[in-house]
Specification:
Radius of gyration: 17 Å
Largest sheet: 5 strands, parallel
Helix content: 40-55%
Distance between the termini: 6 Å
Order of helices and strands: EHEHHEHEHHEH
CATH superfamily: P-loop containing nucleotide triphosphate hydrolases
Shape: globular
Organism: Absicoccus intestinalis
Protein name: AAA family ATPase
CATH architecture: 3-Layer(aba) Sandwich
Number of helices: 7
Number of strands: 5
CATH class: Alpha Beta
Length: 203
């Protein structure tokens, strides 16, 4: 078995978290490192009053993200991470995996953008969604009775611009599997999981 980093990439709203759970259930032995979890933790610790302060915390979170991945690499642990990765993360992830001789498997999830916008909108309006993603100011303990009141929800135009111009649809590192999840009921997760398992254990 070769030490492996699995990157679940692609557009927002494509079920990356669900796929991560499937992989860990069926294949196991992965340390999960999530950029969003680190961001949310820092938003809770520090809070932000402007988008500039929020962006500073996001940059801090990325530094912590790479350090956490490197710590698991030093311990020879398999790592799984889900995010709409882009060229911004490519070089640093390539550097770390090359340094520690990790193989990389990228699963790039794609879909019809109109469907994805509806999924993204529903996720943002879910009360389980961390408010830091959808407001202009945030401090721990802040609550909204209805997330429709949030002042930084994405418009359809903004969502399409992110998806089409940030390179989510072209990110790739290591071995690539591209999966269309426009209709979740038609996704052959079983074959995908078997292929990933073979890549890890037959390396």
């Amino acid at each position: 078995m070769k030490q492996t980093l699995v990157l679940l990439a692609g557009y927002p709203g494509t079920g990356k978290t669900y796929l991560s759970q499937l992989i860990q259930q069926k294949i196991g032995a992965f340390q999960e490192v999530s950029p969003d979890t680190i961001k949310e933790r820092n938003w809770d610790i520090f809070g932000f009053d402007t988008l500039q302060e929020k962006e500073s915390l996001i940059q801090l979170s990325w530094k912590e993200y790479y350090l956490e991945i490197e710590e698991w690499f030093k311990r020879n642990k398999n790592v799984i991470s889900d995010y709409p990765f882009s060229s911004k993360q490519h070089d640093q992830l390539h550097h770390l995996t090359d340094k520690y001789q990790y193989q990389v498997i990228t699963v790039r999830l794609i879909s019809d953008l109109n469907i994805l916008f509806e999924r993204q909108k529903n996720r943002d309006l879910n009360t389980n969604r961390h408010l830091g993603h959808i407001v202009l100011q945030y401090h721990k303990g802040m609550k909204l009775q209805n997330h429709k009141q949030a002042d930084n929800l994405l418009t359809k135009e903004e969502f399409f611009d992110r998806c089409l111009n940030r390179g989510y649809q072209s990110f790739s590192l290591g071995k690539l599997y591209e999966v269309d999840v426009t209709d979740f009921s038609k996704v052959d997760y079983s074959t995908l999981l078997n292929n990933i398992k073979q890549d890890i254990y037959n390396s």
